[in-house]
Design goal:
- This protein is of the alpha+beta class and 264 residues long.
- The chain has two domains: 62 residues, no CATH class; 173 residues, no CATH class.
- 19% of the residues lie in helices and 30% in strands.
- It is built from eight helices and 16 strands.
- The strands form four sheets. It has an eight-stranded antiparallel β-sheet, with no helix packed on it.
- The longest helix has 11 residues.
- It is globular.
């Protein structure tokens, strides 16, 4: 029963007022009383957390928890692209010449996602990857490559569920939800890290300062389970043969390689 309640609260809430109420509750001291049951229901790996459960004063603090220093290993291959998050790889595919990607049988417009038709042209024929974070996942987002931030912008004001049901039955969730987009120059071409909110309220906080990124650097965090979309220019990314969908992956694990990667 309590598991169904958590799912209703965290994964399926999309109304303006209900989301605001949930956000307020998650940040309140009252929420600390459900931290143990939340950790149990979602089977959080407490061994890898930087702190013990009793050190999280609110549910929000548990959501944005950090990990022990050696909890994740970042693949150090010179040209590797690593997962920016703990997540489930829901889909991987090619961006069509019409600037579209097909996810769970639904068509999403890259033009609409980036809100810049001129900018989106560079991704035609490139690769997209969808990484879904459930409420049980580690919620911090790390850079998948070393490179230079060339642009970062925020779009949207409202968010709906982005779990597999939201992707299948929602209305253009990946292209319309509140999102923070970071474009990175890799030395071989550009890629975009699109951080997509899962609820009505702003659930994405950026943490990285400056323009230089090192693979594995923290970029931002989600306050709630959400989704990261990776976009690569045509010809610069080669998917690792081990990747399939759906696939559970940890932050820092190899997704593929950047072709002719230039170390930055």
């Amino acid at each position: 029963m309590i598991q169904h309640l958590y799912r209703l609260m965290i994964e399926l809430t999309n109304g303006k007022w209900s989301s605001k109420i949930l956000r307020k509750f998650a940040r309140s001291s009252t929420s600390r009383f459900i931290v143990p049951s939340f950790a149990k229901i979602y089977q959080l790996n407490q061994e890898e957390m930087a702190n013990s459960l009793d050190k999280y004063p609110t549910l929000h603090d548990l959501f944005i928890r950090t990990l022990k220093q050696d909890a994740r290993a970042i693949d150090q291959s010179v040209n590797s692209v690593t997962s920016p998050v703990d997540a489930v790889i829901e889909d991987v595919g090619t961006i069509t010449e019409a600037s579209e990607m097909i996810v769970k049988g639904k068509t999403y417009s890259i033009d609409e996602m980036l809100a810049d038709k001129t900018d989106s042209k560079k991704y035609l024929g490139g690769t997209f990857m969808i990484l879904y974070l459930s409420p049980s996942h580690y919620h911090r987002i790390h850079s998948p490559v070393s490179g230079t931030v060339v642009r970062q912008w925020t779009l949207g004001s409202k968010s709906y569920p982005v779990n597999k049901w939201g992707l299948k039955y929602g209305v253009r969730t990946l292209a319309k939800n509140y999102r923070v987009i970071t474009e990175v120059e890799t030395g071989a071409g550009q890629m975009a890290v699109v951080k997509v909110g899962a609820m009505f309220v702003n659930s994405i906080e950026t943490t990285h300062k400056g323009t230089v990124l090192k693979k594995g650097d923290e970029m931002a965090y989600f306050s709630f389970g959400s989704t990261v979309v990776l976009l690569f220019e045509k010809g610069i990314f080669k998917l690792d043969p081990s990747i399939h969908t759906p696939k559970e992956i940890k932050m820092g694990e190899k997704l593929g390689v950047i072709n002719k990667c230039q170390v930055i």
